[in-house]
Specification:
4-stranded antiparallel beta sheet; about 280 residues; alpha+beta; homodimer; 5-stranded antiparallel beta sheet; DNA-binding; 8 helices
DNA sequence: CGGATACTTGATGAGAATCAACCCGGGTGG
DNA sequence: CCACCCGGGTTGATTCTCATCAAGTATCCG
């Protein structure tokens, strides 16, 4: 909310009205098939509900670069599945600092947090012109009952979302700044590969400032770390184009945690859940 | 896996065999009702499926302090709902560093990440003697179709999980170390309040080392920050017992982000999704 | 061209990681 | 029972990374 006021104030300062901003988020004429959406979510099996009325057509939305799809504090209950493009999930702290929480690529979900009736804890901003499938909560409930494949797909998406949250934490936690950046690049590379893109040539959709926020460092440090990795020979960096030259060396850099910590931690007990006797009831 | 070897090696060093460790994770004689579980997940409405055979009884597991419920790299597909106690989700990096990813309190979910067929990306360790409901994946699918309330509850849980991941990121990102700790304490206080516990008297279930990992600082720094907050008069700290003395001051401390960032960031566009025209299709 | 934004690089100081010593409580074993 | 060890916690001294401030370049837009 603070952020919103700031932003609109800034617009006023410059006297900009931006009339067509209203078109930044708009439905597309064409709708997508459920099967198509499920494919993008990683579910390739046959969809039993194909042909049922009202189920095979999923509305597609188009959003322009820098448009705000979800607004922090908003309560709208719609689940989005990214079809193309990319988004950043951000949260603006009280003092106006904008914390980047995650990067959402095709197949990823947006709006999950507000589904259970609460408000959105974070905003979603398009990093490029993007499209996404829109599933209103009420429709969602009815579709779920008739299409098990969708349920499967949603669970997949949610699982991945959570796994990625863990990866994010791993990137910003316990390491030197250049190691963080190395992890970020490797992470991006992995995800591009998953999406069928080239894992060596990366196009950063975010500016240095956003990357810095995601990694928990200053944006100058991101610049410096990029330069360092380039000097080492790991990367070739030109603006937002990054090429991975030496994967091994990059992984090496990413590995070195600063606080190595004595391994004999004692906390982890050598027991595994599967050893336990099977469940009763 | 690395972690596992280390742990067992450590046990060998000391010549400890610990025969009854096998009992660290065990089913309870009693089973819980679905309604009871849903209540703990935040769904208080009437459960339509009460009385149906095989639906009203959910197996309850009991785990002892420091036991490992889920193992990183494992593929078991069971969803757990924490009934009492608490867990930490951890991921052991290649070099043996143990990164704490999240703290899971009653009502929270464990095992979501492995539901879509992949392996667990993180382990779950009990911070105290705890109990949880166990829902095997195959049972889950069938129950979901017959009990909409469960679906609702699961979505709630997943939403909260994601929201908490964001909060975690917020805690470790862009601030001075004492501000991080202040945020952590406030966060814990809030969650204790949600659980019906006292928000002023907190009992830390994690050691300094785990807190440090969660916040992304050295464990000595956690100690120092605790001392500092105590000197300020915000807290009273005795080992793992923490009492909040001055809430306002604590919030003040938590607020001050180091990287204030020029607010006129330009990234956030003053547009809201709800302005857009309603969906087609 | 001026203005704005993104990115890079340098100099400097502060804060935190690191190393090290110490206290304390609980468990083990003599 | 006491001495001992071990892990957890606290605190101090030192080093060094990184945030900050500042200046300079490049690119895009009106």
């Amino acid at each position: 909310m603070n952020q919103l006021q700031v932003a609109s104030a800034a617009s006023h300062d410059r006297g900009i009205v931006v009339p067509e901003l209203r078109q930044r988020v708009a439905p597309m004429a064409r709708a997508g098939s459920l099967h198509e959406m499920l494919h993008r979510m990683g579910v390739d099996g046959p969809c039993s509900c194909q042909g049922e009325v009202g189920l095979d057509a999923v509305p597609i939305w188009r959003v322009q670069q820098a448009a705000v799809l979800l607004h922090e504090g908003d309560g709208a209950q719609t689940l989005y599945v990214v079809r193309s493009g990319s988004f950043k999930r951000v949260r603006s702290l009280e003092d106006g600092y904008e914390q980047v929480l995650a990067l959402v690529l095709p197949g990823g979900l947006l709006g999950v947090e507000a589904l259970h009736g609460d408000i959105h804890p974070s905003s979603a901003v398009a990093l490029e012109d993007s499209t996404l499938y829109a599933l209103p909560a009420h429709a969602l409930a009815s579709i779920q009952q008739r299409c098990p494949a969708l349920v499967e797909g949603l669970w997949r998406g949610v699982s991945r979302q959570l796994a990625q949250a863990a990866e994010t934490a791993e990137m910003m936690a316990p390491v030197a700044s250049d190691a963080r950046l190395a992890r970020f690049v490797l992470w991006l590379s992995r995800r591009m590969a998953e999406a069928g893109q080239s894992p060596r040539h990366l196009l950063l959709r975010m500016g240095r400032r956003d990357i810095a926020s995601l990694l928990g460092v200053a944006h100058e440090t991101v610049s410096r770390s990029f330069s360092l990795l380039a000097d080492i020979g790991c990367l070739r960096v030109a603006k937002r184009e990054v090429e991975i030259l030496d994967l091994r060396a990059l992984q090496q850099r990413a590995r070195c945690t600063r606080g190595w910590v004595g391994a004999s931690e004692g906390v982890v007990v050598p027991l595994e859940a599967r050893d336990a006797t099977p469940i009763a009831a």
